[in-house]
Amino acid sequence: MPAKKVLVVSGKRKTATARAIVRPGVGRIRINRIPIEVFEPQIAKEKILEPLIQAGDEVWKQLDIDVKVSGGGYMGQAEAARMAIANAILKWTKSQRLRTTFIKYDRTMVVGDPRRKEPKKFGGPGARARDQKSYR
């Protein structure tokens, strides 16, 4: 009995974490069990589809990708899912040409963005903003 090839790849953006499970299949892509064709909002769907468009149909039409995303907002989740899908395709194909294509298009598709929210400090409403003072 041949071994089943299954890959698990993760992607992160801000506080959102995505876990992509890749299997041989017919090109089914689901985000939190929702098919990508009916995924809302539209702008997040377009963000998730970017690595698939860059890779081309012949690459991902042979795969089934299930993505589970949690944490963060809808756009952070979309970018985490996008990173997980891109890295899953790269890991599956082991193609250096595809890697350079992704990096040339947008580096955050392959490499994570380390920026995080700065913690709030005392003496003001935010991280840098301070309470105003008046001498009148």
Spatial order of the strands in the main sheet?
1-2-5-3-4
CATH class: Alpha Beta
Helix proportion: 25-40%
Terminal CA distance reads 84 Å
| Average pLDDT figure | 90
Q: Based on DSSP secondary structure assignment, what is the total number of beta strands?
A: 5
**What's the tally of helices?**
4
* General form: elongated
Say what the CATH topology is: Ribosomal Protein S5, domain 2
How big a fraction of the residues is strand? Answer: 15-25%
Give the SSE string: EEEEHHEHH
Number of domains: 1
Largest sheet: 5 strands, mixed
| CATH architecture assignment name | 2-Layer Sandwich
Runs in which pLDDT lies below 50 for 5 or more consecutive residues are none
Structural class by helix and strand composition: alpha+beta
- Please compute the radius of gyration using only Cα atoms: 19 Å
Topology, element by element:
Layout: E1 7-13, E2 16-24, E3 29-31, E4 34-35, H1 42-55, H2 57-60, E5 63-70, H3 74-93, H4 96-105
Parallel strand pairs: 3-5
Antiparallel strand pairs: 1-2, 2-5, 3-4
Overview of the molecule:
The chain has one domain (7-109): Ribosomal Protein S5, domain 2, CATH 3.30.230. The model has no long low-confidence stretch (mean pLDDT 90). The chain has four helices and five strands. The termini are far apart. It has 136 residues and is of the alpha+beta class.
Question: Tags for this entry?
Answer:
136 residues, alpha+beta, Ribosomal Protein S5, domain 2, 4 helices
Task: Provide a brief overview of the structure.
The chain has one domain: Ribosomal Protein S5, domain 2 (2-Layer Sandwich), CATH 3.30.230. It contains 4 helices and 5 strands. It has helices spanning 42-55, 57-60, 74-93, 96-105; strands at residues 7-13, 16-24, 29-31, 34-35, 63-70.
